[in-house]
Amino acid sequence: MIFSSLAEQYYDWLYKSVCGEWEPRNLSFHRLLMFLYNRNYVPACEMDISRAADGTNLRYRFATENDISYARIDSAFTGIPCSMLEMMVGLSIRIEEHILEDSSAGKRTGQWFWNMVVSLGLAAMDDQRFDEERAESVIERFSRRDYKPNGAGGLFTLSRPTEDMRTIDIWYQLMGWLAENEA
Questions:
Q1: Alpha helices (H) along the chain
Q2: What is the CA radius of gyration of the chain?
Q3: What is the pTM of this model?
């Protein structure tokens, strides 16, 4: 991702979307999230193109919330594909606002995001322990869908999968995970 002041402001907005004003366990994850911000999300199947659209649409949500013109967003991000961070934040927001919206539970966007980070195998990579080579390997494995049939190493790990998670799109992986964890 090209870094302009607008792109930096946008990254900060994405970071805050999943970390809020706090750092989990007093740890900083800026290096990990910046790594994800700088990695393109490449949809593995036709249905996963919607996950990329959710991610890039966050740019306009950011613009609206910060009184930035869409033309300025278009100019700054023309030709820049969805990043891994955008896809994961976009999916987390979709879970929170469209599937499991519950005002009494508070805002859980970060919870959904960090569940995906854990499933990928990146949760131990706070700023002090970040290993770019290892993170690159994890994202390449995810992109190749070379994770375990139960989804471990992907975005959603199931205890009792009914299908090989590597063969279904991310949306249906999510539905399986929700059925197992939110029932």
A1: 5-19, 30-37, 49-65, 70-77, 84-94, 109-120, 132-144, 170-181
A2: 16
A3: 0.92
